[in-house]
Specification:
single chain; 238 residues; alpha/beta; Rossmann fold; six-stranded mixed beta sheet; 10 helices
Length: 238
């Protein structure tokens, strides 16, 4: 039985006077792919960012490999094996693909940079074609591939993905999720925040449904795909 790599216990998070997360508890086991689905504004991205302490939890606990990281620095968290591909990609626009990838090695140093960069080019062949191109000149899909690859350059034990399909054409979304499926097969632990519930649930071992800052439902990806409430709310009824 796999043990939890990440546990959130009764997490409360505020933006000023507004409570964004209300007593959120969830866990992710080593080697699992877990999704968090919900409508826009439900608090999904806030939850992901709170793992890195931005914003800080007002109450509750975040445990990573059994260690309380609720009040640890973002650098400490990144250096100990958690990497995030943020919403909106946020690549460095004036840097080339190679330079962006090297930025991903900052938490661990560049000892493995050369071999890991080659691995990223095998995972995302399009990035090899664009290796000397500035990120700002790339398509949205290419930038998303770069953001995920940059996160992987830190050799994470846990990969956090925030809305990787946002704003992308359906054919690119399929390519991104096919790559995530390959990553999952290698044993990578993935926590995915995603509005595209259909793709997310098909990829996931388990999933949580968030409504107004609270976890309202949980189950396997397969269970939630056929759940009538989930289908009506997030899958267009089919």
């Amino acid at each position: 039985m796999s043990k939890p790599i990440l546990q959130l216990k009764e997490l409360d998070v505020f933006y000023g006077p507004i409570q964004a997360l209300k007593g959120v508890s969830l866990h992710i086991n080593e080697g699992e792919t877990v999704s968090l689905i919900g409508s826009n504004g439900a608090g999904k991205s806030t939850l992901l960012m709170s793992i890195f302490g931005q914003p800080r939890a007002a109450d509750g606990q975040i445990l990573y490999q059994g260690v309380d990281i609720t009040h640890k620095s973002s650098h400490y968290i990144a250096s100990n094996g958690i990497a995030q591909s943020p919403e909106g990609r946020r690549v460095f626009p004036d840097m080339t693909v190679e330079e962006n990838l090297l930025m991903g090695t900052i938490p661990i140093g560049d000892k493995y940079a050369k071999e890991d960069m080659q691995r990223m080019f095998e995972l995302f062949p399009r990035l090899e074609e664009r290796r000397t191109q500035r990120a700002m000149t790339m398509s949205g899909g290419e930038q998303q591939m770069l953001a995920i690859a940059r996160a992987l350059m830190s050799r994470p034990k846990l990969l956090l993905l925030d809305e990787p399909s946002l704003g992308l054409a359906p054919i690119v979304v399929k390519q991104i999720f096919a790559t995530l499926r390959e990553l999952a097969k290698t044993g990578m632990t993935i926590f995915l925040v995603e509005q595209n519930a259909n793709h997310a649930l098909r990829l996931s071992d388990r999933a949580y449904v968030m409504v107004n800052g609270e976890i309202r439902m949980t189950g396997t990806g397969k269970e939630l795909l056929v759940n009538e409430d989930v289908r009506n709310a997030y899958l267009g009824g089919h």
